[in-house]
Amino acid sequence: MISETGRVVGIDHDALWVETIQRSTCSSCSAQKGCGQGLMNKALGGRRNQLRVKLGNQSADDFQLDDQLEIGIPERALVGGAMVVYLVPLFTMLVAMAGVSHFIAGDVAAAAGALFGFVAGMAILSLHARWIRDNPDYQPQILAKKPSLAAQPVSVFDSPYSV
User: Could you read off the pLDDT tens digit of each residue along the chain, which spans 163 residues?
Assistant: First the structure.
């Protein structure tokens, strides 16, 4: 199970919307210069990712906006999802390009076939995403609710530096 800390940014009746990427994590990572996530975060002005986390047997009333959560996703789901997202459009693009090139000669026809194959691959991905949307094997899960920093009382008078 791969875990990540996130912040609740939206609450539905059956799911939470959790913002997951943290700048501190990206700045301390050893793959900082070669990581696509870190580069996209910098290029898009710090836009963060949001995940829909189904509540399962928990109630939406147990959560508030800005709650800190630890969420987890099975490794199988992450690796399998990455394989599908990268390989399906590539495979459909190459198959369509080869199919069109077999029947119609020319670079323009091959490029049109590749474009058609890529679009078909993206359509297949869209259908696949709808198909697994509610499959619990591919869903992030709430592992723990962390205590909120805002909920802890702060006393100014107990400071060792007070006079």
Answer: 888 888 888 888 888 888 876 554 555 566 656 666 666 666 655 556 788 888 878 887 888 888 888 888 888 888 888 899 999 999 999 999 999 999 999 999 999 999 999 999 999 999 998 988 778 888 888 888 876 655 555 555 555 555 5
In a domain, 126, yes or no: yes
Judge whether 49 lies within some domain: yes
Q: Is the pTM of this model over 0.70?
A: no
According to DSSP, residue 14 is labeled: S
| CB 50, CB 18: distance < 8 Å | yes
Cα(15)–Cα(29) distance, rounded to whole angstroms?
A: 30
Give the range of the structural domain holding residue 70, as residue numbers without chain letter.
2-149
Task: Evaluate whether residue 44 is within a structural domain.
Answer: yes
> Does some domain include residue 154?
no
